[in-house]
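Pipeline run #58 for the internal structure catalog. This entry was flagged by the ingest filter as a single-chain record with no existing model, so it goes straight to prediction. Upstream metadata was stripped on purpose; only the residue string is passed forward. Reviewer on rotation: M.T. Logging verbosity set to normal.
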Amino acid sequence: MKTSPAARRGSVLKVLIVLIVLAAMLVVGVAVAGVAVYRLLTVDPDMRSIRKELLSELQIETRGRVEVKVPSIALGLARMVVPFVDVPEEGRLALRAVRGGSVGVYQLEDAIAGADRRELVERVTHLLEDREWQRTVTVIDRDQLVMVFAPAGNDMPHRFSAFVLVVNGREMVMVQGRANLEPVFTLAERHWHRHGRGSLKFN
């Protein structure tokens, strides 16, 4: 049975329409995936600004950095899995503390000497206080510096925004996002009782 030219043109047209629709869906899918990856690899503008100002103000040179945004849903799934795997208690507390946000890991050109860390605390505190963050926890010992900041006037320990700065040798880590304050205090107290050195301060 022969098909008429009109029928053949109709079949070709249908195939073209299907191909166009599939191509459009592919483009949209790639665009959505691209946006998702961009958002995952792009930290919040506020943290990016703090990092830039902090490194410039302190004249700290870095050799490399890794910055990612961690969505709260990923952390929620991780908290569901943790009870079934062998994770140290400190890791469980840290996971409980974080609710999602941005993380930056930076390799410093030179390690910050222990004698310079107290000065670093004051300069970082002054810089963040200008942005209306207040220091809530400070841990200093010969190997490590940990500072936790919260928005000024925040009185909700179960749900607050936090900025955390950790300096350990030639590594510096910045974290900004939503957090639960109580596990942070527990971690700091545990560090203090275990090592019995340095200084621990709750502001």
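catalog note: The mean pLDDT is 66.
catalog note: The CA atoms of residues 70 and 128 lie 22 Å apart.
status: ready for reviewer M.T.
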